[in-house]
Amino acid sequence: MALAAQLPQSCIYGGLRLMSAFGGAARQPSDKLGHVIDCGSATRTEGLRNSFSTVAMPSAETPQCQNSTSSSASSQHIAPHPGLKPKLSADSFEAHGHPNYSNVYLEGVRPTHLQPEKLYQHVGLHAIQAARWIFDRATGYGPNMTEAKWLQRMIFLETVAGVPGMVAGMLRHLKSLRTMQRDHGWIHTLLEEAENERMHLLAFFELRKPGPLFRAAVIGAQGVFFNAYFLAYLLSPRTCHAFIGFLEEEAVKTYTHALEEIDAGRLWVDKPAPPIAMQYWGLPPGATMRDLILAVRADEACHAHVNHTLSKLKPDEANPFAMGASQLP
Ligand SMILES: [Fe+2]
Ligand SMILES: [Fe+2]
């Protein structure tokens, strides 16, 4: 796949993050899967395999599993919970179950563009180009923006960016419930994207607290965009994923612009990264805003590739980014 060839590293790192977004150990899916089922019951089925494969469950070494199998009737029994994370080895690709990119990869991310071929791709591209044109003019985007203006833009856009993954994940979840059919591994990848965007928002929010007018605009935008995206996804999921793919391409461009400003000494000179970002991305001591923007840009590049890929799949095709995949397409 041409896009994959352009983004091999982002796919590897981002994909590992996506595959293990809920604590999964991407290197040993089968081991983890077996332990998961052993914790709670004596048997497992093929149906369970898929639904459990993307949630975090304790490994066999965790106290929860040992307790549940050795003294199931005792008061020490602790029921395993999907939110529990397995222990990670020191050389894990993840830090605390979150993205952890290499410096070489982070510095190498560049804006990319998927040339639209199909009608739904043209629709997605033109929609995002129109949205960006309007938003850029409404907010005065351009050269020599102040730190406050950058943060205003980033915070607002990240409140919007966290919506599509949640809407798509929710709709696929509901469809699976009402049709009583499997989801083919899409839901957790979509929800993970939403959470990742929310972490972008919370990181930038540490640097600037919006006022009541800004918050009102966020509420209004969410009300409109959530409903519009909800309806659009019902009509054409393919077009929606293409739209998000092109949106994320724009995000990579914008964060690359921010990095150029930082490197030119016009933005966040040696400003420390906020603690929440240090924790989420596992940034080293002394990390600055430049490190944070590098990590966010890498996330956006990953989202672009994931959504462009999903847009080309039929809704009942297996998600190639789901747990158990050893290499991303
Ligand atoms: Fe984002
Ligand atoms: Fe994004």
TrEMBL record:
Residues reported in the UniProt entry to bind Fe cation 2: 197, 248, 300, 303
UniProt subcellular location: Mitochondrion inner membrane
Oxidoreductase found in the keyword field: yes
Chain positions covered by the region annotation Disordered: 58-87
E.C. code: 1.10.3.11
GO biological process, one term: alternative respiration
UniProt superkingdom: Eukaryota
UniProt: Fe cation 1 binding residues: 158, 197, 200, 300
Cofactor note: Binds 2 iron ions per subunit.
Keyword Signal: no
Principal subcellular localization: mitochondrion
Membrane spanning stretches: 213-235
Subunit: Homodimer; disulfide-linked.
Family assignment from sequence similarity: Belongs to the alternative oxidase family.
Name recorded for this polypeptide: Ubiquinol oxidase
Upper lineage: Eukaryota, Viridiplantae, Chlorophyta, core chlorophytes, Chlorophyceae
